[in-house]
Amino acid sequence: MNYWLFKSEPSCFSIDDLRARNKQISCWDGVRNYQVRNMLRDEIKIGDKAFFYHSSCTPPGVAGIVEVVKNGYPDHTAWDLQSDHFDPGSTPENPRWYMVDVKLVKKFPHFVSLDEIRRQSHLKKMLILRKGNRLSITPVTKEEWQVITEMGK
DNA sequence: GCCAACGTTGGC
DNA sequence: GCCAACGTTGGC
To answer: Domains in chain A and their CATH numbers?
Structure first.
């Protein structure tokens, strides 16, 4: 079982939006980066857990935990003309983009801000802290997982 | 295959 | 709104 960090802008899709969903399950759609696509298609599996990270907001940080409940499958928003993520290069016959389904495990009682993460010596190597990191999904080590989970209590 | 121009991300 | 950093695009 692997650990991940999933970024989302809360103005677009927040942890409370997920909580409001039927069964607190949602597809994680809209990824349009090949490296992250490969993770969604090949590496991220049912039972994996991920931090739900709020980006481009004040403050940014980890809002809670989700669990993967469906393995990678084609992201149909890519062939939806109405979607912001429409991509004419992707078709049902030859899908270019993938997504997984996630289910809310918990919203942290204590939101773990980026600032707190930065100040924690055990978290210095997190990819989220690397300048210029452009991946909306990044792997998380077991130690990082445990530290942040503890901070969220 | 190079690389300049452009677009996007995301913290501040 | 700024801007650094990176990915993508497209002409050559």
So the answer is: 3-145 (3.10.590.10)
